[in-house]
TrEMBL record:
The keyword Metal-binding does not apply. Pfam families: Aminotran_1_2, GntR. GO terms for molecular function: transaminase activity. Residues 8-76 form the HTH gntR-type domain. It comes from the Bacteria. The lineage of its organism: Bacteria, Bacillati, Actinomycetota, Actinomycetes, Pseudonocardiales. Transmembrane segments: none annotated. This is PLP-dependent aminotransferase family protein. It comes from Amycolatopsis plumensis.
Amino acid sequence: MLDLPGWGSRRRALEEALRSAVRDGRLPAGMRLPSSRDLAAQLGVSRGTVTAAYEQLIAEGWLASRQGSATRVADGTMARSAAGFRVHAWPGEPEHDLRPGRPDPRAFPRELWARAVRHTLREAPEEAFGFGDPRGRIELRTTLAACLGRARGIRIDPAQLVICSGYTQALGLLGETFAEVGVRTAGMEDPAVPDHVRQLDTHVNVVDVPLDDDGLRVDVLDAVDAEVAVCTPTHQFPLGTHMSARRRHELLAWADRNLGWIVEDDYDGEFRYDRQPIAALQSRRPGRVIYVGSTSKTLGPAVRLGWIACPAPLLESLVEAKRRARPTSPLDQLALARMIEVGDYDRHLRKVRRGYRERRDVLVEAMRSRLTGTEVRGIEAGLHALVQLPPGVAEDTARVALRKASVGVHTLSSYLRSDDGRHAASLVVGYAAPPAHAYAAAIDALVRVVGGLPRQ
């Protein structure tokens, strides 16, 4: 039941009443709303008032509508259990979600994916409903080999592509493979994602390798007798830097000289804004570089698909590790292959790339125009930026204040395993996750909190 005041703008009052009803769960996600004619009659307002309110809330992301169907509450606005009870947000979920590594879940290409799934269910061969080749469906491996060659310069035979369930599984599979072929030590970038370090450390000894302005320090790899180097050369996470041409040459020379392996994590290679894409390292040394990519940033975590372009000497061990691991949905593989084949995947990428670039520009402008002493780095690509705090502001102070204001960001120190003071106090800010209607408020909250922090 909606109650409107008898004064002020009836349209604005209706908009706010609907927002409140969605926020507190009285209108759950997916619920069908009355037609504009019926709601106007119930509330005693004009049909045009209801239509205008619906249109505004659709634009803000609160409601959703398709031609020929009813207006409904948009998915993701309020979760509910199967019994119909409200499910509260996970403890600690921020009101303003600017955490890195998270694409916008509302950007998932529902229609394109549904079309690909329908085609898959209609046309998939019977063996697609079984376990099949542990490397993955040949349809996806063939399509991916061509796509990666075109977009990233990857040189790989489809027989040497292994499909997996995202980067975390890929790293675990590679850890098993390295251990089986006798690798003892792997060098990994510092800073890096802690879960990724733990995943590899389960199988081989992981040593921290710092970065300088050119990228991963090859001299440290030599000093610790590393046999594997794990890196993000195109857009380092979380620093946002890219490996220089000189350092790329040095790293490849290290692999040749020591018969070492390079794991190239191309986690956001599809998102480039201000510079031309840089060819993957694998394109220069396919026999020594293991290339790993996934859909975690392009489609989101709902579709758990990744791929490993594996040099021939490691392939047998990697395929055996995948055979023992959790299988990757063949139907999802075929759906992605279909999206790539008909051009829907590229169309989706172009759309979200424009949207993320606009969000990045809003973040950078707000920081540069409203906060003195901050510096924003790593903005040429990806879905996050490194925001250096004003001089005298400590990371711990910023973390506590932002958490109190329910602004979700990460501190740089949370990714550092050996903090020797070489990095300035900084925040790792993601700009993809908040819904469009809440993004400006999230950036404003971030700026206000950081701007009010005490300086030592």
